[in-house]
Amino acid sequence: EAGVVQSPRYKIIEKKQPVAFWCNPISGHNTLYWYLQNLGQGPELLIRYENEEAVDDSQLPKDRFSAERLKGVDSTLKIQPAELGDSAVYLCASSLDRHNEQFFGPGTRLTVL
Amino acid sequence: ILNVEQSPQSLHVQEGDSTNFTCSFPSSNFYALHWYRWETAKSPEALFVMTLNGDEKKKGQISATLNTKEGYSYLYIKGSQPEDSATYLCAFLRSNDYKLSFGAGTTVTVRA
Fold first, then answer.
1. What pLDDT is attached to residue A4?
2. Between chains, do B93 and A99 touch, taking CB under 8 Å as contact?
């Protein structure tokens, strides 16, 4: 069974440019998560979807970040415009529901110059 | 922001030696405690999901205990091998909103 797929794996952009990350969760997983991981820290939740509904986006900086999960499957996370401080690893994860273990993708390492 | 603390931040172990490290978390609104292993260049992988006070779980030479009343969990590695080198993350799942909050991790390096 395929795991959580993310693309791209690496992205280098200049500040003020837009960037988008894509995630395909494990088939049948209702809950999808986007995390931000800075060096030396644990992942921090940006947004959690249950099916197509964003049920927790309290940590998402809404002035520049947006996300969508069309049809409750794939999801896209966008940053526009990117800032230097956005350089980090962006992880996508999915789970059967909000109670269960999470399965993580390989992450996208973003570098903003 | 929940305080999920892990210690030590890093440790070095000789191959064959055993080791353990700690995760502390809030003792209120507890739903579950997750442990994940994150090897370099790979995805984080779930080791254990623990829900009951006094729980003990084992997977190969790795085991974990849980004390929800005092808010801590221990992860043990018996007879460490180089392939056990990874960052071990614990995460606290809160019962009121099911938000998973991670600690910063303990990075284990096993020397051959």
1. 97
2. yes
